[in-house]
Amino acid sequence: MSTDDAKTLIETAISRFLKEVPALAPLKLIFAVELRGRGDVQMYRVELPGPKITKGIAEDARVRVEMPRAFFNIMAREAEIADWREAFMYGKAKATGVQEIIKLIVHVVEKQEERQRLRRARS
To answer: Where are the alpha helices (H) located in the chain, listed in sequence order?
Structure first.
Protein backbone atom coordinates (compact mmCIF):
# COMPACT_ATOMS: atom_id res chain seq x y z
CA MET A 1 0.00 0.00 0.00
CA SER A 2 1.38 3.42 -0.87
CA THR A 3 1.89 6.49 1.28
CA ASP A 4 -1.15 8.17 -0.24
CA ASP A 5 -3.26 5.19 0.79
CA ALA A 6 -1.95 5.42 4.35
CA LYS A 7 -2.73 9.15 4.50
CA THR A 8 -6.23 8.49 3.17
CA LEU A 9 -6.76 5.71 5.71
CA ILE A 10 -5.57 7.93 8.58
CA GLU A 11 -8.00 10.62 7.40
CA THR A 12 -10.80 8.03 7.16
CA ALA A 13 -10.07 6.71 10.66
CA ILE A 14 -10.06 10.23 12.13
CA SER A 15 -13.28 11.32 10.41
CA ARG A 16 -15.08 8.09 11.44
CA PHE A 17 -13.83 8.49 15.03
CA LEU A 18 -14.85 12.16 15.24
CA LYS A 19 -18.26 11.37 13.79
CA GLU A 20 -18.81 9.04 16.76
CA VAL A 21 -17.13 11.35 19.31
CA PRO A 22 -17.92 14.89 18.07
CA ALA A 23 -16.83 16.44 21.38
CA LEU A 24 -13.19 15.77 20.35
CA ALA A 25 -13.53 17.62 17.01
CA PRO A 26 -12.26 21.01 18.32
CA LEU A 27 -9.27 19.40 20.07
CA LYS A 28 -5.97 21.02 19.07
CA LEU A 29 -3.41 18.24 19.05
CA ILE A 30 -0.38 17.09 17.14
CA PHE A 31 0.16 13.36 17.28
CA ALA A 32 2.32 10.78 15.61
CA VAL A 33 1.07 7.65 13.93
CA GLU A 34 3.51 4.76 13.55
CA LEU A 35 2.38 1.90 11.36
CA ARG A 36 4.58 -1.19 11.56
CA GLY A 37 4.72 -3.37 8.47
CA ARG A 38 6.98 -6.22 7.47
CA GLY A 39 10.40 -4.89 8.35
CA ASP A 40 9.57 -1.18 8.16
CA VAL A 41 7.77 1.53 10.08
CA GLN A 42 5.79 4.28 8.39
CA MET A 43 5.60 7.48 10.42
CA TYR A 44 3.08 10.28 10.05
CA ARG A 45 2.49 13.61 11.74
CA VAL A 46 -1.18 14.42 12.26
CA GLU A 47 -2.40 17.85 13.25
CA LEU A 48 -5.90 18.44 14.57
CA PRO A 49 -8.24 20.06 13.90
CA GLY A 50 -7.98 19.28 10.23
CA PRO A 51 -6.59 16.75 9.92
CA LYS A 52 -3.32 17.82 8.30
CA ILE A 53 -1.34 14.65 7.64
CA THR A 54 2.30 14.59 6.57
CA LYS A 55 4.69 11.68 6.23
CA GLY A 56 7.68 11.79 8.52
CA ILE A 57 8.71 12.00 12.15
CA ALA A 58 6.48 14.19 14.32
CA GLU A 59 9.04 15.74 16.64
CA ASP A 60 6.39 18.05 18.14
CA ALA A 61 3.86 15.26 18.80
CA ARG A 62 2.25 15.21 22.24
CA VAL A 63 0.87 11.69 21.72
CA ARG A 64 2.23 8.74 19.72
CA VAL A 65 -0.08 6.01 18.42
CA GLU A 66 1.49 2.74 17.24
CA MET A 67 -0.01 -0.37 15.66
CA PRO A 68 0.62 -2.96 12.98
CA ARG A 69 -0.15 -1.67 9.48
CA ALA A 70 -2.41 -4.59 8.51
CA PHE A 71 -4.45 -4.13 11.71
CA PHE A 72 -4.74 -0.37 11.12
CA ASN A 73 -5.98 -0.92 7.55
CA ILE A 74 -8.96 -2.89 8.89
CA MET A 75 -9.59 -0.57 11.85
CA ALA A 76 -9.58 2.58 9.69
CA ARG A 77 -12.32 1.24 7.44
CA GLU A 78 -14.51 -0.67 9.89
CA ALA A 79 -13.85 0.16 13.55
CA GLU A 80 -16.21 1.93 15.88
CA ILE A 81 -15.19 3.51 19.17
CA ALA A 82 -15.71 0.27 21.12
CA ASP A 83 -13.32 -1.50 18.71
CA TRP A 84 -10.68 1.20 19.17
CA ARG A 85 -11.02 1.03 22.95
CA GLU A 86 -10.62 -2.75 22.84
CA ALA A 87 -7.56 -2.46 20.56
CA PHE A 88 -5.85 -0.17 23.08
CA MET A 89 -7.00 -2.24 26.06
CA TYR A 90 -5.58 -5.50 24.65
CA GLY A 91 -2.37 -4.00 23.29
CA LYS A 92 -3.11 -4.26 19.54
CA ALA A 93 -2.67 -0.49 19.47
CA LYS A 94 -0.56 1.59 21.83
CA ALA A 95 -0.76 5.26 22.81
CA THR A 96 2.11 6.95 24.63
CA GLY A 97 2.87 10.55 25.44
CA VAL A 98 1.39 13.27 27.64
CA GLN A 99 -0.81 11.34 30.09
CA GLU A 100 -3.18 14.28 30.70
CA ILE A 101 -4.07 14.38 26.99
CA ILE A 102 -4.52 10.61 26.77
CA LYS A 103 -6.71 10.65 29.91
CA LEU A 104 -8.80 13.50 28.48
CA ILE A 105 -9.42 11.58 25.25
CA VAL A 106 -10.30 8.40 27.18
CA HIS A 107 -12.68 10.38 29.44
CA VAL A 108 -14.47 12.04 26.50
CA VAL A 109 -14.80 8.68 24.70
CA GLU A 110 -16.22 7.03 27.85
CA LYS A 111 -18.78 9.84 28.25
CA GLN A 112 -19.83 9.44 24.61
CA GLU A 113 -20.25 5.68 25.03
CA GLU A 114 -22.34 6.31 28.15
CA ARG A 115 -24.63 8.67 26.18
CA GLN A 116 -25.00 6.06 23.43
CA ARG A 117 -25.91 3.36 25.97
CA LEU A 118 -28.53 5.65 27.51
CA ARG A 119 -30.02 6.42 24.08
CA ARG A 120 -30.24 2.70 23.28
CA ALA A 121 -31.81 1.95 26.65
CA ARG A 122 -34.52 4.59 26.09
CA SER A 123 -35.45 3.39 22.59
So the answer is: 3-20, 69-78, 81-89, 99-122
- Say how far apart CA 46 and CA 53 lie, in whole Å: 5
- Structural domain harbouring 96: 3-122
Alpha carbon distance 35, 75 (integer Å): 12
Number of domains in the chain: 1
DSSP state of 42: E
pLDDT tens digits, residue range 74-86? 999 999 999 999 9
**What's the pTM value of the predicted model, to 2 decimals?**
0.88
Sign of CA dihedral 79, 14, 59, 26: negative
